[in-house]
Structures are given as structure tokens and as C-alpha cells.
Design a protein that fits this description.
- The structure is a homodimer.
- Chain A contains 13 helices and twelve strands.
- In chain A, the strands form three sheets. Chain A has a seven-stranded mixed sheet, with helices on both faces. In chain A, strands 9-12-11 form a three-stranded antiparallel sheet.
- Chain A folds into two domains: 5-48 and 301-391, Aspartate Aminotransferase, domain 1 (Alpha-Beta Complex); 66-292, Aspartate Aminotransferase, domain 2, CATH 3.40.640.
- Chain A is of the alpha/beta class.
- Chain A is globular.
- In chain A, helix 11 packs parallel to helix 13 (375-391).
- Chains A and B meet through helix 1, helix 3, helix 5, helix 6 and helix 9 of A and helix 1, helix 3, helix 5, helix 6 and helix 9 of B.
């Protein structure tokens, strides 16, 4: 035996996804990359804002010593203070640098939070459909996902949540704006969720934590904004990154923020700082910490993604696709015209259109289109989308 | 309950180390930072070589698109190829890009390798004294450390190793040059270790892996070089970083390399790439990958560390300390003149000298001096080192 049983299983289980990607690569090689329309990945096509490049240039010319040295595992205090100040512009609770841990992206942040709180076999409630990496992140810390249904418009189903919560429930994990649906939870929904979690925390005698994964917070459309989870419930963590709003996914920079009034805060934050260290992250990349301290109010031009969303929604609806118009992020999650979403995605692939079956997100009967791609890809794919829908 | 039982335990267990650091910080505040001589951390005091800054400046001016985007979880192919070419300059086996996974430092690399290979409760043999973070890294993946004695000069004790190896042994983890001893294992020792591991791999019917942690490979003295573990044994991983030789610890860039003839290589590498992703690292920071591809032959000026080593060894020996002169890295690991190393380190602290008890490395009766500090710190501390030794 070479790799562990668990990893062997994960590799074998994910082999159909890999086959799909390999088939995409094969098609690009055969037909030319410009003839294959790849909507499979959430890799932003927009370049970072020009101010990002200007800050990078400024930082590498900075003659001060120690800029690439180790630091507190929590991160640079000036960056954490800048994040706290930024959070204070749109949340009721008042944050300080001590409420922030800088992390290796949102993936790092989520692993830090989960390792901090989870005992083996404890459960985390996750509304479906959901970002499937959560399964791995929970398993890293021996946690168990407890997936729950949502309403047809992807808003919370509180009956399903209540049925799922029990004495082993350690947290509820939400993602807003949502990958894959683009759903943004409303303030009233979050308040209701907070009331429900307060009730069950009291009933079971320990906090059930709310973890909100918000890397798409700035990527919202039609003038809406993402309500504060911190305003809704005190036992709350927010994890996020600058991968999407600054188009820096390869640089692995993000943070975890704890509610300033979270129970037993000193121990919780000490746990997060320890976990950032012992998970091997050690600290978030130093230069990127320095950069984002000066870039917290920046973002890519969201109107570009909005235009892509509108073009795709309009065209696909006119072809007969059934789509819940996304309010944020850069994903569409239409219903597949046939029940078998894997077969439908294979049919799209025959048109050189690469998407992901909803089954991969706990949302069978749908497929995900990541529209963080060029207009040429969108326009080039539309005839194929129309033909495949007509076929069924 | 807030944090998990395990994390609460780790925080409480490490509280004496924290108290030590807090006492150091209190002394710096009370006496002035220049009156406190801090040898407690392996945070290189040398700035990165000037070529590092030049490469950074070049990279941020590069106008090409997509430089901060997602990439293969293994890392940039041009960086992996550059690492392979570099490894081919001092190892017999021939590496290709496919044998390399770029990681978030050596800590990330080690977690990736351990998660790839470990089933729960499997054991990893580690010679003492050792870098104590290994305990956490093993525990992350439910592995169990099996600590073994070494010879008085810190070379391998093969009898102790053979006694420790059993059917649950999954790997042997070594660190050369060693933290905390500065020991560099010899080619003959490594070959003997390889023979022993080949024997027991055969006996138990599956490879026992050798994992060599080598972030200090370039930091060696008196013209010695670090022999290749790849030349000694085929079932081998090397993990390393650019934290020490390029003084970039805050930037979290390193890699894991697998022996080109490791058994079941396709599965092993697929496992590593998957683990880099699911552990939340996703990929090594993109800009640092681009940078180190052009910096593989660079290092800080090692003669500066050699001078510091020589000055400290000479002075401490003249005061009566018993020291094995380190061959590499930037640590001294002298015997404490009394058996209780924690008490001895406390006595040094009373002289405003901050060091770490050997007990923290599985090496009681010793203390660790990290001499990656300014000459002023070394010179300022010498009288205190002399006084404390005289006291006992």
C-alpha cells in the first residue's frame, strides 16, 4: 500500500470529475482552446484592479528590514487592525485587531476555525447545494457534515435545519453569496437563524457556532448588499479571502474574524492562532498581508460580472432553461432539462461546453456555469446551449 | 465548551512556553529591547539576498495577465521544472516536474506528505531531539510519533530504530541539518538507514517511507555538504522551504519532492496534489513560486552564520559549557550544567537571556540557542552566559 486508504478512496471517488477535466483538456488539444467553452472553474477572468499592482510595486521598493520575516501566527497587527476598521464600516459590533486572524485564503480560514472547535464526530449543518470542499475540510478534523434541504429559491428551510440540529451539532456553515447558486441570504433570514441557534445553544448548554463563508461579499448585483451575520448572532465566525474580489486566488490571502462578543473569546482566539500554526500554514503570506491592508475597499469592476450574468440569464432563459437569477458570486445554477445532470453535462461537453453537474454540489437536477470567463467564451457557447436544450 | 478538548489541552499544555515568551516580552518592555538577548526563535536575522528583491521588482513589473490566478494544485509547471533541474545537480536519480509539489512552506509540505500516507494510528519513527511541531503535524492526520534515542553525538542509533520499527510503522522522519542540534547525517549513515528500511519494508510487505526535512540544507559550515537521501533509499520524500536560506519565512514557500522511482508514484503524487488542495493550502503562493524559480541557487551569506557559531562556541566552551559543535543550521544545543533544563533556562532568563529548554525538543538536559541574531545580541549575552554557568 502506498497512499492511505482514505486518500486512495478520495482519488478514486473523484476520478469521474478528473475524467471530465481530462476530456475537456483533450477537447482543447483537439479543437483548439478557443473552440472549447470552459465554464467549469471559479477562476476569475478579470485581472486584479490596477491599484493592486501599484501597491505591489510600492511594497517591493520599501527598503525597511524584516518584511519577509516570521510574525505572530495571527498575522501582522497593522493588517489585522485595518481589517477590523473595515469590518466596523458595515457591522454593528465593534471589532479590534484581536478579533482577526490572517489566513492562507478562505480555505485556510475555514480549516483553522473547524480545527479550533470540532471534537471528533461532531456535526456541522450545511444547507444544500454547497461548496463540496467543505466535506474535505470537515473530514480533516473528523467532523461530520449534516446536509439540509433549502427552499426552492435556495433560502433557508428552518424546519429542515431544526430537524438536523441535535446535541452533536457544533456549527452551522453557510456561504453567502452562495457557490453554486448565487443566493444572498436576507437579514430577516439570518436573524431567524440566529434565534433558532440561540434556542438550541441554550437547550444543549453550549454554543452552536455560525460560520459564514463570504469570499463573494463584494460581488453582488442590482444594488443589493450582503447583510451582516455578526448583527444576527453573537457566536459567529466569518471566513473570507481576497481571491475573488481582488482576483488574487493564487496568492492565498484571507482572514477569519470572530464576533467581538463570542463566548470565551480569549480561548477561541488562542485556539485559532494555535491552529493556524499547527496546521502548517504558520501565517498568511507576509507580503500579501501588507498589500491587502491597503486594498480593503478595492474590488474588480463588478459591473462586468453583472453584464455577463445578464447576458447568460437572458439567453439561456430564452432557450428554455429554468434559472434562479443569481444575486451575487459568478455562478449560474440552472435546472437540467433532464433529471440526470451528469448525462446532461456530458451532452454539453459534446458541444465543447464544460460545466459541472449539480450532483457535485449536493444539488442534483442542476448544473453549474462559472461565468467568470471572457465574453467570447459566453457568446461562443450560446448556440451549443440552445442545441442541447432543444434535444431534450 | 468553546474550543475542542484537544485544542484546549494543547493551549494549556503550552502555557509554560507562553509564560516564558510573555516573561521575555515583559523584560523587553521593562529593560528595553536592546537589554534583552533573545535566542528563542529560528527567525533569520539576515535580510533576503539582494537578488531576491531584484526578482520581486521584476515580477511586479511583469505586464502578463493571469499571474495571480489559480493554477494546478501541484504548482506552476515552470517552477516545478526549475526545482527538478536544481535537484538534478546534486542527486543521482533524475527528477522531472511531475516529482515536485510546490507547498506553503516546509510545514505545508510535511502535512501534505503525512496526510497522503498515514492511516489512523500508524507510527512515524523520529530520532531525538527533534523539531517539536512534528507532534502536531502527525496528530493532524491521526499519526503517532515513535521517538527514538540517538548516539551521544546525535548520529543514528540503529538498535533503537530497529526496536521501534514494527508493522504499524509508516515512515521515518529525519531533519538534516537538524533543529535543534545542527547535526548533519553522513552518507554512510543514510545508506545504512536505507538498508534497514529496505529490510523492514520487505518484512512487512509495504514501503516504510523516509521523509527528510531539509530547510537548512544550504546552511552548513566548514565546507561540508548534506548528502542526498534520494541516493540512499528509493521510498523517499524530501520536504523543504526557502524560509531559512533565502530568509523568507513569512512568505510561506517550499516544496515536497518524491523520489523518481518511489513505488506506485502516480498514486502517491495524485495523493499529494489532492492533499495540498483539501488541506486548504490549495496551492503555494503564486508570486513566490515565480520568484523562487529564479532563485534556486541563491542563499544568504552563510559565512555570517558561521562566524556567529564560531564566536558563540568558542566563548561558551571557554565558560565551561559542553557543546557539540553544530555542522549546519543556526542552533546550538549545549548541555545544561544542571539536570533541570527548565530551571537552567529560567536562570538565563534572570540574566535577560532568552533560550528554550531541551525538554521542548525531546532532549532534556540541554538548551537551545538560536544564533540567527545580531552580533550585538551575542556579545551582550556572553557575560550573562558566563555568570549563570559559574553559579552551578
Amino acid at each position: 500500500m502506498s497512499v492511505s486508504n482514505k486518500i486512495r478512496g478520495a482519488i478514486e471517488k473523484s476520478s469521474w470529475i478528473r475524467k471530465m477535466f481530462e476530456e475537456g483538456a483533450r477537447r482543447k488539444a483537439q479543437y483548439g482552446a478557443d473552440k472549447v467553452f470552459d465554464f467549469s472553474l471559479g477562476n476569475p477572468n478579470l485581472e486584479p484592479p490596477s491599484k493592486v499592482k501599484a501597491v505591489f510595486e510600492d511594497l517591493v521598493r520599501d527598503p525597511r528590514e524584516g518584511q519577509h520575516a516570521y510574525m505572530s501566527n495571527a498575522g501582522l497587527v497593522e493588517t489585522r487592525q485595518a481589517v477590523a476598521d473595515y469590518l466596523n464600516t458595515f457591522n454593528e459590533p465593534r471589532f479590534s485587531a484581536d478579533d482577526i486572524v490572517m489566513t492562507v485564503g478562505a480555505g485556510g480560514a475555514l480549516n483553522v476555525v473547524l480545527k479550533t472547535i470540532l471534537n471528533p464526530e461532531e456535526e456541522v449543518v450545511i444547507p444544500k447545494p454547497y461548496f463540496v470542499e467543505y466535506n474535505f475540510y470537515l473530514d480533516n478534523h473528523q467532523g461530520v457534515p449534516r446536509l439540509v434541504e433549502t427552499q426552492p429559491d435556495f433560502s433557508f428551510n428552518f424546519d429542515a435545519m431544526e430537524a438536523a440540529i441535535n446535541e452533536k451539532t457544533r456549527a452551522v456553515l453557510i456561504n453567502s453569496p452562495n457557490n453554486p447558486t448565487g443566493k444572498v441570504y436576507r437579514a430577516e433570514e439570518l436573524k431567524e437563524l440566529g434565534r433558532l441557534m440561540t434556542h438550541y445553544s441554550g437547550k444543549f448548554g453550549q454554543p452552536i457556532y455560525l460560520i459564514s463563508d463570504e469570499p463573494y461579499r463584494k460581488i453582488v448585483y442590482d444594488g443589493i448588499s450582503v447583510p451582516s451575520v455578526f448583527d444576527a448572532y453573537p457566536e459567529t465566525f466569518v471566513v473570507t479571502s481576497f481571491s475573488k474580489d481582488l482576483s488574487l486566488p493564487g496568492e492565498r490571502i484571507g482572514y477569519a474574524a470572530v464576533h467581538p462578543e463570542i463566548s470565551d473569546k480569549a480561548m477561541v482566539v488562542a485556539g485559532m492562532v494555535l491552529c493556524n500554526r499547527v496546521l502548517g500554514y504558520v501565517n498568511a503570506p507576509a507580503m500579501m498581508q501588507r498589500a491587502i491592508a491597503r486594498l480593503l475597499k478595492e474590488s474588480v469592476d463588478i459591473s462586468i460580472y453583472q453584464r455577463k450574468r445578464d447576458r447568460l440569464c437572458e439567453a439561456l432563459t430564452s432557450f428554455g432553461y429554468d434559472i434562479m437569477k443569481p444575486e451575487g458570486a459568478f455562478y449560474l445554477f440552472p435546472k437540467t432539462p433532464i433529471a440526470d445532470d451528469v448525462a446532461f453535462v456530458a451532452a454539453l461537453q459534446d458541444e465543447n461546453i464544460l460545466t459541472v453537474p449539480g450532483t457535485g454540489f449536493g444539488g442534483p437536477g442542476h448544473f453549474r456555469i462559472a461565468y467568470c470567463v471572457s465574453d467570447q467564451v459566453i457568446e461562443g457557447a450560446l448556440p451549443g446551449f440552445e442545441r442541447v436544450n432543444k434535444k431534450y
